[in-house]
Design the sequence.
């Protein structure tokens, strides 16, 4: 085994943690989930604050906490998930090509807490983060991957806006949600004008 001061150990640990998390998703083994958490915590402890893989490592551990929260319903897991995703996002530069994924994951964490605790602040935060992620996705270089990611952003924004409409009954939220769903159906053929109109429509979300 690599000693704790080995420069490669932290990467081995967080990648192993991620693999165990994926295994848990398919097989549901509690032991794998707990080991994934322990390995993820150890990886973070070994990394420097400015390590290139730290945002991904933090996000992986946050996702492990999300799985624990879903499995056991403990609020502390959701709080830890939000904190870790927030730290990961704070380390990602504004021009990072995958920044929108960190925004989406943090939004999802706030949405989870909203569903459990009912705070409108959490729902508003989830909406704002998803809309921001969507805006960034419009700036991605065109590729099959970016088109799929944009559709995911559109669908997620639509869902959070729909949730807020159910809570507050504001027509603008459901209209924006429908606009996102229509744009998602267009998928790869969403042209620049359509994107501009949609962005303008979401500007005050």
Sequence:
């Amino acid at each position: 085994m690599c000693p704790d001061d080995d420069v490669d150990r932290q990467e081995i640990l967080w990648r192993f943690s991620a693999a165990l998390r994926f295994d848990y998703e398919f097989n549901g083994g509690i032991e794998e989930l707990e080991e994934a958490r322990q390995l993820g915590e150890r990886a973070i402890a070994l990394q420097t604050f400015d390590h290139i893989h730290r945002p991904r490592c933090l996000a992986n551990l946050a996702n492990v906490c999300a799985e624990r929260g879903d499995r056991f319903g403990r609020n502390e897991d959701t709080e830890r998930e939000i904190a870790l995703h927030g730290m990961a996002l704070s380390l990602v530069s504004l021009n990072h090509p995958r920044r929108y994924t960190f925004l989406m994951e943090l939004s999802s964490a706030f949405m989870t807490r909203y569903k459990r605790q009912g705070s409108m602040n959490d729902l508003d935060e989830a909406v704002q983060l998803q809309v921001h992620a969507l805006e960034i996705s419009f700036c991605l270089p065109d590729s099959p991957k970016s088109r799929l990611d944009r559709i995911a952003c559109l669908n997620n924004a639509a869902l959070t806006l729909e949730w807020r409409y159910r809570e507050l009954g504001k027509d603008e939220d459901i209209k924006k949600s429908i606009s996102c769903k229509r744009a998602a159906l267009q998928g790869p053929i969403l042209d620049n004008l359509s994107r501009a109109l949609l962005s303008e429509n979401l500007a005050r979300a």
Observations:
- DSSP finds nine helices and no strands in the chain.
- The chain has a mean pLDDT of 87.
- The two ends are 51 Å apart (CA to CA).
- Residues 73 and 187 are 35 Å apart (CA to CA).
